[in-house]
Fold Gliding motility-associated C-terminal domain-containing protein.
Amino acid sequence: MIVYNGVSTESGSENYLKFEPIENYKNLQIEIFNELGQKVYESKNYQKNGEVFRGYANVKGVFRKGKRLPTGTYFYILKYQNITGKSNTKQGYLFVR
């Protein structure tokens, strides 16, 4: 799995957290946290129907839903199944600017 983990809130179709090759994975579920461990984004159908992280919060709490997140480093947990149906978890960092 290749991870493109640089996210820019500037306009552009490729400015999001992306995992490739997407056709090799299914049921992508993701949670993204700020440096304090507070959840700022979650999706149970990541990279389907345009559902991607572009640097904006989508959960209530720390930031208003739909609000642009501050520049900085964030942490993600991705759960998915590979083409054979095996469940996997991937963790990593991403940078929002």
Observations:
- Residues 56 and 69 are 5 Å apart (CA to CA).
- The longest strand covers residues 72-82.
